[in-house]
Structure formats: structure tokens, C-alpha cells
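User: Can you model how zinc ion sits in this protein?
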Amino acid sequence: MEKNENGSLYHIAIAVNNLSDAEKLYEDVVGLKITHREEIPEQGVRATMLQPAGKTGTAIELLEAIDESSPIAKFIEKKGEGIHHICFYVDDIEKSLNELKDKGVKLIDEKPRIGAYNSKVAFIHPKAMNGVLVELAEVSKETD
Ligand code: ZN
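Assistant: Here's the modeled complex, given as C-alpha cells:
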């Protein structure tokens, strides 16, 4: 797989009530294929990644809450199902976070955490990004 360029869109994440229903919808309506499923207890979510056939192009990440304390459960309670965050590739997440800190950008994660799909991720506060929750991801290519 080609290296993904710093700043290119990796995925759009959608908070859903029912993961298997949502998977079916994105397969049937949009024709996407499931490329990965993962449970991330630290983040309180079950996640499914879908991509166009050929596994290139921007992915859709469907997120279902594991339990009521999950941030996804809280999001849906407040706003209903819908777009939860967008995620951009970065080459070096520590470097990106340090640069953002220097610029005074409000971060949710000062340090990267382990995300799905063998990635290191960090979230920028939506207040710093026009109301959009933005995730940065450094994805190891070795497992692709
Ligand atoms: Zn994400």
C-alpha cells in the first residue's frame, strides 16, 4: 500500500446505534466493503472500517458504544446518530502534537493513544476546529 500523505483524509467516523445494521447499510447503499472490525475497550467502542472495493480511498468508520459510559453513547444521547469525527493522516504524531501545543491549539489528547488498526491517534478539541472533532492518526503500514 502506498504511504498516505500527511493531511490526507483517512476516515469519517459515524456514531451508530447498531453496528451490524449500519454495516449492512453502507454495504448495500454505498457498496463499501468491510475491511476491519475491532473492539477498543479503552475507548468504549466497537468499530468497523469500510472502504471502497480495492481498499483505497477514504474510509468510513462506524462506531457503536460498548456500554452507557462510552463517549459514543453520550454523543448519541445528546445529538443522535451522525458524524462523530473526521480523521487525517499524519506522518509523525508526536511531532504534530508538539507543533500544535506550541501554537496553542486546544487538544483533547496531549499524548497519542493507541487507536484501532494498529495506529497512534490523538484528538483535537472541536472548539479549536470550527466545532468538528478532528482525529490525527499515524498508521503503521507494516500490517497492511
Ligand atoms: Zn476515527
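A couple of observations from the model: Strands lie at 9-15, 33-40, 45-51, 59-65, 82-89, 113-114, 119-124, 134-139. The chain has one domain: 9-138.
User: Helpful, thanks.
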